[in-house]
Each structure stands twice: as C-alpha cells, then as structure tokens.
Amino acid sequence: MAVVPMRKKGRTAESTEVAKPYEPTAQEVTAKAAYIKRREARTPAPGMKVVSTRKGEVLDVSISVDHPDPGLGYELMSAAIASECGDFTRGTLETLSMAAQKGDTVHEVSMNYALSMVYGMHPKDQLEATLGVQMAAVHIAAMKAAACLGAAKTTQAMEAHERMFNRLSRTFAAQIEALKRYRSKGEQRVYVERVNVEKGGQAIVGNVGHRGGGQDESGR
C-alpha cells in the first residue's frame, strides 16, 4: 500500500519552493565532532565482504577482507584482534561467520557487527580476542531469542524463548566479569572514599592491632 502525503493548503502542485536546509543544534554539532574524533583515533580495522553465489542446489559463500589492498587489510585486521599468527586470524573469522549465519548463508551486516564488537574491546592478546568472539556470538543469539520472544504466539513458546533469552543475558554478564578479572590479573584494590575523624581523635592509615585484655603499651 502506497502512502501519498497530503498537499498543504495554499500550495499548488506546481510549487517549486525549496525547503530550508536543516540547521543542526549546538548539541548535535558537539556530538558529531566527538564521534568523528573517536572514529579517527581508532586503529584502522577493515570489515568483511560476503558474496553468495548459487550454483544449482549448492550455495557458494565467499568471505574476503573489504579493503583495496587485501594483504594490508588482513594484517590490519590481525593487529586489531591481537593475533599472533594467520591461523588464529582465519579461525576467528570462521567462528564469527558461524555466529552471523542465517540459514545456509552468512549475513554480512551481522558478521561485521560481530567483528566490530571484538574491535571495540581492544583485545590485548588472543585470549581476550577469543572471549570477545564468544561475547559477540552470545549477544547475537540473545537478540535472536528476544525477536522470537516478541513473535511468540503461545504461552509455551513465550516461556521457552524467555528462558533462553535470560540464560544468554546472564552468560553475557558473566563474560564481562571474566574479562574484567582477566585484565586485572587477579589484583584486589581497596578504595577508601571518606574518613570521618571526631574532635580529639586521630586518623590511622595502616594495620591496627589490638592487645588482649584491653592493656595499653605499658602493660596496664
């Protein structure tokens, strides 16, 4: 069904009046400048190009680096995911293609979205990159479960998709905590936000020991 806009009163079909260009607000200009600055500071990292060709009953899916110089693009991608060898880069791309698979083909937008999530984590080594791939896969699966939940027609289907969505969401939260622990290398820090000292008192920073029996330093 086509939607035909209503003609405004006082204007004819032959009117050639040019609409005034939109003038962005100060907040919009600031937000745009901040986005451009963030984008330019980011390490160059190309996306992926997916081409599907059907030959009879066989669907041939070709995945390649979307860069004018494929060799350079592959190296930039490897650097962005902290890869130490070509095998890890190829394996990472293959697993991401599995997460972005729809039916018998790979969805290019979903794959580049998953890859951008890994890039955005700024992995420091291959383990962090691997966790990033898992997080991207879990997130995509959670969104698929959410879509199924919204489209469910029966109570039984709603409950099944809700359980799946909750499990995936909890898994994603656990992955975030695992990444935080790994990056902190198990270090524990204690932060003191505020210390109140009453009049006549004294603030002590460090270990405080107490003698048994309430004795003072003189033994009394």
Annotation keywords:
4 strands, single chain, extended, mainly alpha, 50% helix, 220 residues
Low-confidence region ranges: none
Total beta-strand segments: 4
Q: Please bin the fraction of helical residues.
A: 40-55%
What sort of overall outline do the alpha carbons produce when their principal axes are compared?
Answer: extended
* Broad structural category: mainly alpha
Which strand order does the major sheet show? 1-2
How far apart the termini lie comes to 95 Å
Q: Main β-sheet, in a few words?
A: 2 strands, antiparallel
Strand share of the residues? Answer: 5-15%
Query: Radius of gyration, Cα only, in angstroms?
Result: 29 Å
Mean pLDDT, to the nearest integer, reads 84
Counting DSSP H or I runs of 4 or more residues, the number of helices is 6
Q: From N to C, what is the helix and strand string? A: HEEHHEEHHH
